[in-house]
Write a structure and sequence with these properties.
Layout: H1 2-15, H2 19-38, H3 41-59, E1 64-68, E2 74-78
Antiparallel strand pairs: 1-2
Helix pairs in contact: 1-2, 2-3
């Protein structure tokens, strides 16, 4: 059952479009894994931080980020923070 939950959350991470969505999904997967692994709220928090930050770094490693404009179109350009 635990493996199924993790697989579903991981699949949600892959379907995210923008950098923010991917980071949020990574944090969700990390929280689930942390909670399952440690059976505590503290483990969930640590997992969320690691999962979110790790996903963010992996997504922006090439210096390009995906954004969604007001019309809902997703585009890729240089990250604003660089």
């Amino acid at each position: 059952m635990k493996a199924l939950v993790i697989a579903i959350l991981a699949a949600a991470t892959l379907t995210a479009c923008t950098t923010a969505e991917k980071t949020a999904s990574g944090a969700g997967v990390g929280a689930a894994v942390g909670a399952i692994a440690t059976n505590s709220a503290g483990g969930a928090v640590v997992g969320a931080l690691i999962g979110g930050f790790g996903t963010y770094l992996a997504t922006t490693a090439d210096g390009r980020c995906q954004y969604r404009n007001s019309r809902g179109q997703v585009y890729t350009t240089r990250c604003h923070w660089r």
